[in-house]
Amino acid sequence: MAITHRKDTRPVRVGDLIIGGSDQVVVQSMTTTKTHDVEATVNEIHRLEEAGCQVVRVACPDDRAADAIPEIKKRINIPLVVDIHFDYKMALKAIEGGADKIRINPGNIGRREKVEAVVNAAKKRGIPIRIGVNAGSLEKHILKKYGYPTAEGMVESALHHIKILEDLDFHDIIVSLKASDVQLAIEAYTKAAEAIKYPLHLGITESGTQFAGTVKSAAGLGAILSKGIGSTLRISLSADPVEEVKVGRELLKSFGLAANAATLISCPTCGRIEIDLISIANEVEEYISTIKAPIKVAVLGCAVNGPGEAREADIGIAGARGEGLLFRHGEIIRKVPEDIMVEELKKEVDKLAEEHYKK
Ligand code: SF4
């Protein structure tokens, strides 16, 4: 059963995508390369695109990075977000260079003329601004008021930055409220969803290494998504960013929120197993990872409970002695010899994907 996802957020255009205003949740990641190294950055972005990343962010710490934006933009296929800390000149350069969105907190830019210059440039090019509130770097007056980072303080900080943009009649806004404390992040996003009509960008910051960070992000973002909150997300891992995309897509699949990803159902195996299920499941998982259609594929160790247990699968295989049983929605369609069953399953998956793409 899919959850009822919040749709009443403002739709904000980012390149050729719309974030907000629907139940779609867009998967993002961030490059780990030096942005001025165009070759390495573009290569990493291509790997992220291949993994299903829909929006990519690059850091823009200096002029060399800002100067690289036009060339990076030219060579990639997904919307490009440029992350700027304070320097409004860097923001102007990034906007001029073709950024599809910038991430900057207007309250940190400084004098009003500087804020206006950035907002006007973004307006002119029709690109949004993401406000990124971080529990670890809340404004002094907010910390003083609450004593330590709280969900209320984080939302207050977001509203403070939003007001600066709204006062300049700028409304293409996306907001994140990241914390590395899972409970704090859940509370902040829950409160923000009540107070803010702009799309929310979800994330648990500094969540850790691939394994620990995956569990922590899934716990935190899972709780937030289960409330129907979030229009885009980034999993932050101390790992290859391709892993962030894989985790993000898998998380969305668990909530029926990934419209462009195939899902694997595989049994935990038990004493009834008739095939080498673990390696087959890994092979099939790898195979379907680049499929951009919402197909459910099952791989089951035996036919005893198998096909019936995976009734929701669009296509599946269950091990039998020396052969595999191909099934669709719980009904066996044919038997295939064990040595070619994985290949046969892949062909059926390709057929279903083709049918979906043609629709
Ligand atoms: Fe065991 Fe068969 Fe169920 Fe897999 S599908 S857990 S092998 S009974």
Automatic annotation (TrEMBL):
Cofactors, names only: [4Fe-4S] cluster
Alphabetic keyword roster: 4Fe-4S, Iron, Iron-sulfur, Isoprene biosynthesis, Metal-binding, Oxidoreductase
One of the record's GO molecular function terms: 4-hydroxy-3-methylbut-2-enyl-diphosphate synthase activity (flavodoxin)
Known EC number: 1.17.7.3
Catalytic activity field: (2E)-4-hydroxy-3-methylbut-2-enyl diphosphate + oxidized [flavodoxin] + H2O + 2 H(+) = 2-C-methyl-D-erythritol 2,4-cyclic diphosphate + reduced [flavodoxin]
GO BP annotations, alphabetical order: isopentenyl diphosphate biosynthetic process, methylerythritol 4-phosphate pathway; terpenoid biosynthetic process
Residues that hold [4Fe-4S] cluster according to the record: C267, C270, C302, E309
UniProt KW Oxidoreductase keyword: yes
Pathway(s) annotated for this protein in UniProt: Isoprenoid biosynthesis; isopentenyl diphosphate biosynthesis via DXP pathway; isopentenyl diphosphate from 1-deoxy-D-xylulose 5-phosphate: step 5/6
Sequence ranges assigned to domain IspG C-terminal in this UniProt record: 264-351
Membrane in keyword set: no
Cofactor stoichiometry and binding remark: Binds 1 [4Fe-4S] cluster.
Residues annotated as domain IspG TIM-barrel: 9-248
Family: Belongs to the IspG family.
Protein's job: Converts 2C-methyl-D-erythritol 2,4-cyclodiphosphate (ME-2,4cPP) into 1-hydroxy-2-methyl-2-(E)-butenyl 4-diphosphate.
Protein's name according to its UniProt entry: 4-hydroxy-3-methylbut-2-en-1-yl diphosphate synthase (flavodoxin)
Organism per entry: Thalassobacillus cyri
